[in-house]
Design brief:
By secondary structure, chain B is α+β, with helices and mostly antiparallel strands. Helix content of chain B is 26%, strand content 13%. In chain C, 62% of the residues lie in helices and 3% in strands. The chains are: A alpha/beta, B alpha+beta, C mainly alpha.
Chain lengths: 980, 198, 333
């Protein structure tokens, strides 16, 4: 052999077996499938000439019959960029993948995961049939048996402990329709304990951004970055996390000779392409941003006119920023003042400038404050609401934006309708269900530990437990968990078990649950932790490539994915599983009242239509399945930079690709969607808009409405509040409503029709008329530099709970202990104890975590894909060369990483590199299947174990939660490393 | 006829490995065989660059020259292909190849290497174009279908270019002129005895 | 040969060079990653090959470009056929010339002609012939790597040749092991009798009897045979060592090391073949009576006395009853 196979199997016996298996069997089976496709299909006529002159296509002899190869388009399930996946299907078998040239988002390209996505469907390591664990052994069961047993147990737990004792953990890999259905299902079940991965990726972004200017989403798009003259990427590594976005980032960098500034503790693959790299100490984002703003204010580089007309209370920020002199910034963050001055000047002067961030900014105890500070930097320099500017927030999973929008969240209903009576009543109207009946589904919570009792209605309006604390809500004493009883059951749909911090405590929580159900294409870490002997079920769910439905990319574009092939093995899609459970629980008829169900499978199109009927608040009302399908069909017509189709096109004329929300009004009025949020240079009908007047009209004598700023063609040439029927009547615009629209408004409003708003008017009349008057339904407000409703209205620096700089903790402590989301958050006590016990001396290395391009999330799915798994065969820790030398650690050897809580430790390989600074270590978060040095492979159901296993970084991560969203701290903790 | 080449624009390459898995996907390449790979130079330090590398389909290919059974041939598109029927798995082409392209599956003990496998520029082998036998031995034949290698077609940042040498050189030149920098056409000097003058 | 030398020196130089990247900095001294990116020229100045980091465990794959492959090719395709051809054909020509000028060295008859003396016992002969037969296959299959495509392939066509070459490769890999074993056996069996001594110097000065009239004295092995022995042991072990490196590639060295191994293997190989050709010649066609030593194991006493007088004396001294006679081979008189 010429390649060094001995090392090729990574020194682990399992890989050897795998390598043998792959060469001996798998290839044959697939080779056969593929061959059958080739022989029948020929695939000849599909290509076109590109780049170089190629020989003209030659048909594959007489057997070629292109008609047999069907092309189906879906959306890559691996990140929020939203790459189109083009599949060739022959006889129901997915035989090949072609570049999706037509998609304006990926233009044919994929990353390692997208280019290997066919294997997800074919994978031999998928969970094949429902299973349950009996006395520690996995057993195959039928779907009927599984659903019956699960629902019986759920009902029993509910009867005994109440609805809130069951946690409904959904997924950012759901389609929009499944996300919506899952949220609706939880409402019918009677709990707000429903969450998904956004909690641990961008919950702080959503909270921070929405609290600044209205909506918690990327303001512009990946494509629009091509317009930027300056871009700052802070706490993000798109080269690995969003590789296709780099096509646009690097193109922008090249075309405009743009400044590309990367601010990160780690010299990432993205930083390698930066024009300027700023290395900061993890967790000092606010000092760095305020440090940049200090120079901006000091030199008068801020956009005064913009601030004057569109920003509220920037002066409050000035006061805080004044404290962050270059010296103090350098003392806290390690960044020299001169470098920040240069960055500040570029960002303020070389416009348009955009700010890109990702989980490096959000996954902190100060995540929301970080995000707020970033927004304020955009506002101060006038870099919002124009092409090439904006907060380009790169979200994580394929549909994390959509799942967030559709309410897989403990604080909202679908489309950000609040957990208030008005919100519940709105959805009750859409669902055609009695509001009172919904209320009866919720628990009454008795008084406990000095807290007042809650009625059903109050409980219905109380935010639920965050997914970051689910195990605390199982294990903590009952009086500390503010609901009828602590958690007894976990229903986990498409969510890894290794992505939440503090694994040792999660394992404890798992063991105490009365019921654990994992519904996923793979068994996930939950199945492999050896914590459960009984009452645990695995339900095989198909990937979203095997089902119909839409996904919302990070840029708010919705894309319709069509089923490529039938679900593999016995797997079923989310819709069907939810339907079957609803049938057993007795509310299927009501839940699916307006949704066609064929052979037990609810229609994705009908679900989207229902979303359209209720999605006014976020402009999810115009994206009908028909329009979305037309977009997928006509992808090639959309412009690469503006994302707009030519106006004269009969099917998608004038639309922005994917009808990025808000797409106002009913589908019939053909609003084009909004490519760039808050863009006053465009008419609202063309996707223009203003900052949302979400926070009232006045505060402390200062107006919260925009001054002398309005979107193009607006009838109102100043700020205005959001529109209600009452406002309409004052303006006399009620006359523009049709009789039908008026009737609907009257019906909704009952005896107070004036209160019916743009967001609750099911007729869409208010929105339609607003567009005709060139105004945006949600009002024309100011963005808030001071968000008075947040714990820190103006962001202030707070040291991480486990700070490597105990000397700074006294001056910059974390927030005091308080209760949030039904749980205590004792970060302050933990921080104090860590300082008192000298933890930073015993654990002198900062530990951060992040992404690898080959894997996604908890990684079970991608680590089960041999094409990807081969590229990253070992969990590792990046150790700085100097730290490694001090500890006698060689590149590639095993080391122990010790965490400061629970005596935790993880055995991983050392990757000795200068990517991390001295005193900093970094681990990827996609691994699991080893636990504190032990290989857990045998605990997986046979044949469903991922190819590659490794320690989870979260075995050694620690306490720390954002006060606004319960976000966990994954980016800064402390550790010690020694050779194993 | 075109003279097919690869060009990796390292100033665009982000080591996303799409080229690697696209290749695996297109040809069902087994574990342990990497027809294409991405190498990162100066890792973790300023100036770091990643380069995607596979068979460069050299002019006057060294693999072909050293093969003791002359199993290599060059197509009209200047793609260097080989016959697995003739290959004896001696490993000489790996010693000669400047780019580490040849790969060998392990077949038996003591290193009896299997037939060499390498990038075919997505153009199969000596068998009849698009035949089952060709697919089984070499993977698919995109060139015969009028398509270019999938690794380049799917490249996340359009870093990896494939196509007629003059055309991709032109694309690269235009990029460098537009953006003002370029770390050069990696491997061209060794493979084609030429560089792209800008 | 300049290229070859540079190739051989490569391994040494590789260890000495350490990477150091020139960094372009912004006016205030901050590094500018875009402008200071590495390029091929810069990296080649630091190191003759370009290597980096790769996530797959195959360390060889971390080499991006190793232009030494072209030098190795130059050696293998431009030099090796000539070196090999000259070595092998040169030796054949030399032996032919010798044969035609000097003819076969005849057995000098004496009164003891016809008496036999055991020169090599059966295990010694087994070791010799195992090694020898392996060597013949190894050298033919080895030469095939160089000359097969030039000589044989045009005659029998590519398919037949590839099949033959494939079997040749298997033979080369599998027979290497008994060959190496044989070399070790012979080393153990004969090393005691092959220690060079003063007598060998005299033997050499007299050209082994070819110069002058008298036969120089020799022990069990004369200097010529000792040279063959040490050649077989030395080259055999070298071929074995380099060969094992190639059977388990990259286990102990990198790509350039592998190239060096192959160069050594092939160079020694052809010299070895040439040497063994001479050995075969002298042991068969070149000298009457010599073959019997490895044939039946018994040689004519007269021949032995001429060529290995000291050894015969030693053997006779060991047995009081005179020359040790072979079983059932009673002298005629």
């Amino acid at each position: 052999m010429l390649t060094k196979r001995r090392s090729g199997i990574a020194g682990r016996g399992s890989h050897q077996a795998l390598a043998a298996g792959l060469t001996a069997h798998t290839l044959d089976r697939r080779g056969f499938l593929r061959k059958s496709g080739l022989a029948a299909g020929g695939l000849a006529a599909l290509g076109s000439l590109r780049l170089g002159a190629v020989r003209p296509a030659q048909a594959a002899g007489s057997s070629a019959d292109p008609a047999q190869a069907v092309i189906r388009k879906n959306v890559c399930t691996h990140c929020s960029v939203g790459c189109t996946v083009t599949a060739e299907v022959v006889n129901g078998v997915w035989v090949g993948q072609e570049p999706s040239w037509a998609s304006p988002i990926n233009r044919g390209a994929h990353c390692a995961k997208g280019a290997a996505i066919r294997e997800l469907v074919h994978s031999d390591r998928r969970l094949r049939y429902p299973m349950k664990i009996v006395n520690g052994e996995w057993q195959r069961v039928s779907w009927d048996q599984a659903i019956t047993e699960i629902t019986d147990k759920l009902q029993a737990i509910r009867n005994k402990n109440g609805a809130d004792s069951v946690y409904w953990l959904g997924s950012a890999k759901f389609t929009n329709e499944a996300s919506y259905l899952f949220r609706k299902f939880a409402a019918y079940w009677g709990t707000n304990n429903v969450d998904h991965q956004a909690r641990i990726c961008h919950s702080t972004t959503v909270a921070g951004v929405a609290n600044t200017w209205g909506y918690g989403a990327q303001t512009n798009s990946y494509n629009d970055i091509r317009n930027a003259k300056t871009m700052i990427i802070l706490g993000g590594n798109p080269a690995e996390a969003h590789p296709i976005s780099m096509q646009h980032v690097l193109s922008g960098k090249e075309i405009n000779r743009a400044n590309m500034i990367v601010i990160d503790p780690r010299f990432t693959r993205t930083a390698a392409h930066a024009t300027e790299y700023v290395r900061i100490r993890s967790g000092t984002d606010i000092p760095v941003i305020w440090g940049i703003l200090w120079h901006i204010f000091q030199n008068g580089w801020e956009d005064k006119a913009f601030i004057e007309s569109r920003v509220y209370a920037m002066d409050d920020v000035r006061k805080e920023v004044a404290k962050w002199t270059p010296d103090e910034v350098e003392r806290v963050s390690g960044v020299p003042g001169e470098q920040l001055k240069r960055v500040a000047e570029l960002f303020a002067k070389e416009k348009p400038a955009t700010l890109i961030w990702c989980m490096g900014a959000t996954q902190h105890t100060v995540g929301t404050a970080n995000v707020r500070a970033l927004c304020i930097l955009c506002l101060a320099t006038g870099n919002v609401g124009k092409p090439g500017t904006g907060a380009n927030i790169f979200r994580g999973h394929t549909n994390v934006q959509g799942a967030t929008d559709l309410g897989l969240d403990v604080t909202t209903l679908p489309l950000y309708y609040g957990l208030v009576e008005g919100g519940w009543k709105h959805w009750a109207r859409v669902w055609e269900v009695e509001y009172d009946w919904l209320q009866t589904r919720f628990d009454e919570v008795p008084a406990s530990a000095g807290r007042k009792a809650r009625s059903r209605k109050e409980n219905m309006e109380t935010p639920g437990l965050t997914s970051t604390r689910w195990f605390d809500a199982v294990s903590l004493p009952a009086d500390q968990v503010d609901q009828r009883t602590p958690l007894k059951a976990m229903m986990v749909f498409g969510h890894g078990g290794n992505t939440v911090t503090r694994m040792p405590e999660a394992v404890k929580g798992m063991a105490e649950l009365e019921l654990l159900v994992v519904a996923d294409p793979h068994p996930t870490t939950f199945a492999a932790m050896d914590a459960r002997r009984d009452n645990t079920y695995l339900l095989p769910i198909c990937t979203s490539l095997e089902m119909d439905g839409s996904r919302t990319a990070s840029n708010r574009s919705l894309q319709w994915g069509e089923q490529i092939v039938k679900p593999a093995f016995e797997s079923k899609n989310d819709y069907e599983v939810i339907y079957r459970m609803a049938v057993k629980l007795g509310f299927a008829d009501s839940l699916f009242k307006n949704v066609k169900v064929v052979d037990g499978v609810p229609s994705a199109e009908d679900l989207l239509r229902e979303i359209n009927r209720g999605g006014w608040s976020t402009g999810y009302c115009g994206q009908s399945p028909e329009r979305l399908k037309a977009h997928m069909k006509n992808q090639h017509k959309f412009d690469l930079v503006t994302l707009r189709a030519p106006k004269d096109d009969p099917e998608v004329g004038g639309d922005y690709y994917g009808l990025p929300w808000p797409c106002w009004g009913k589908p019939e009025i053909r609003h084009p969607g909004t490519h760039i949020l808050y863009n006053t240079a465009l008419h609202v009908k063309e996707g223009g808009g203003t900052f949302r007047a979400r926070f009232g009209t006045e505060r402390n004598g200062q107006t919260l409405l925009a001054e002398d700023s309005f979107s193009k063609g607006s009838d109102l040439t100043d700020g205005y509040p959001e529109f209600t029927f009452g406002v309409f009547r004052k303006l006399g615009w009620d006359k523009d409503l049709t009789a039908d629209e008026l009737a609907t408004i009257q019906r909704i409003g009952g005896n107070n029709p004036d209160a019916v708003s743009w967001a609750t008017d099911l007729s869409g009349g208010i929105q339609r008329v607003c567009l005709d008057h060139g105004v945006i339904p949600f009002g024309n407000g100011k963005a808030r530099a001071n968000a008075w409703n947040l714990p820190d209205p103006v962001p202030v620096h707070r040291e991480p709970v486990y700070s490597p700089r105990p000397d700074l903790v006294a001056k910059y402590p974390t927030r005091p202990d308080e209760r949030q989301f039904r749980m205590p958050n004792v970060g302050f006590s933990v921080q104090k104890a860590a300082v008192d016990r000298g933890i930073a001396k015993q654990f002198p290395i900062i530990l951060s975590s992040g992404r690898l391009v080959e894997y996604e999330g908890g990684g079970e799915e991608t680590r089960s894909n041999p094409w990807l798994a081969e590229l990253q065969q070992d969990m590792f820790v990046e150790v700085n060369t100097a730290d490694a030398a001090e500890r006698g650690i060689k590149d590639g050897q095993f080391v122990w990483v010790y965490g400061p809580e629970n005596s935790s430790k993880a055995k991983v390989k050392a990757l000795v590199t200068d990517r991390v600074a001295k005193g900093v270590a970094w681990m990827p978060f996609h691994f699991s299947g080893w636990y504190q040095g032990k290989d857990m492979r045998d605990f997986y159901p046979k044949g469903a174990d991922p190819v590659v296993l490794g320690e989870s970084v979260n075995t050694v991560t620690t306490y720390g939660f954002d006060p606004v969203t319960g976000m966990q701290e994954t980016k800064v903790t402390l550790c010690q490393i020694s050779a194993a | 006829m075109a003279r097919m080449k690869f060009l990796c624009d390292a100033d665009r390459c982000i080591e996303c490995n799409a080229c690697v898995t696209a290749c695996k996907n297109e040809h069902e390449v087994p574990w342990g065989i990497n027809r294409r790979r991405v190498v990162t130079l100066n890792d973790g330090k300023p100036g770091e660059r990643s380069v995607s590398m596979a068979c460069m389909h050299c002019t006057d290919a060294p693999c072909a020259a050293v093969c003791p059974v002359n199993c290599f041939y060059t197509t009209a598109d200047a793609v260097v292909l080989h016959s697995k029927d003739l290959c004896i798995g001696c490993g000489y082409c790996f010693y000669a190849c400047p780019f580490g392209a040849p790969q060998y599956p392990r077949v038996g003990n003591f290193g009896s290497r299997g037939k060499m496998d390498k990038c075919t520029y997505c153009s199969g082998g000596p068998e009849v174009d698009l035949s089952v036998a060709e697919y089984e031995k070499y993977g698919s034949n995109r060139l015969a279908e009028g398509k270019l290698p999938l690794c380049a077609e799917m490249c996340s940042t359009k870093s990896l270019l494939a196509g007629d040498g003059e055309m991709i050189a032109q694309i690269y030149k235009e990029r460098v002129i537009k953006r003002g920098y370029g770390s050069g056409a990696w491997g061209w000097k060794t493979a084609y005895r030429e560089t792209i003058a800008i | 040969m300049r290229r070859l030398t540079s190739l051989l020196l490569l391994a040494a130089t590789l260890a000495l060079t350490a990477p150091a990247v020139a960094q372009v900095r912004a006016p205030d001294g901050a590094p500018n990653p875009t402008a200071s990116s590495v390029n091929e020229e810069m990296l080649f100045k630091q190191d003759p090959k370009i290597h980096g980091r790769i996530s797959i465990p195959n360390a060889t794959a971390a080499n991006l470009i190793q232009p030494q492959g072209r030098e190795w090719r130059e050696f293998r395709e431009s030099w090796m056929p000539w070196i090999g051809g000259l070595a092998v054909l040169g030796m054949i020509a030399a032996l032919g010339l010798f044969y035609f000028t000097r003819g076969r060295i005849r057995l000098e008859h004496s009164e003891e002609s016809g008496k036999k003396i055991l020169r090599f016992n059966s295990f010694e002969r087994f070791s010799h012939w195992m090694t020898a037969s392996c060597f013949i296959v190894l050298s033919l299959s080895g030469l095939n790597y160089i000359f097969g495509k030039r000589l044989l392939m045009p005659l029998i066509g590519p398919e037949a040749f590839a099949t033959l070459a494939q079997y040749g490769k298997y033979a080369h890999i599998y027979l290497a092991w008994p060959f190496m074993l044989g070399v070790l056996f012979m080393l153990v069996l004969w090393v005691r009798d092959n220690i060079p001594g003063r007598i060998d110097w005299i033997w050499l000065k007299q050209g082994g009897g070819l110069l002058g009239d008298a036969h120089p004295s020799a022990g069990r092995f004369n200097a010529g045979q000792k040279m063959v022995f040490w050649m077989v042991v030395g080259f055999g072990l070298a071929m074995g060592a380099t060969g094992i490196m190639m059977i388990f590639p990259f286990a102990a060295t990198d790509i350039n090391g592998m190239q060096v191994m192959q160069v050594i293997h092939s160079l020694i190989g052809v010299v070895f073949i040439a040497g063994i050709l001479a050995h075969i010649y002298i042991g068969s066609l070149g000298m009457e009576g010599a073959y019997d030593a490895m044939g039946s194991g018994e040689v004519d006493l007269a021949w032995a006395k001429v060529h290995h007088d000291l050894w015969v004396k030693e053997q006779q001294a060991k047995t009081a009853s005179g020359p040790q006679l072979g079983r059932g081979q009673v002298p005629a008189e």
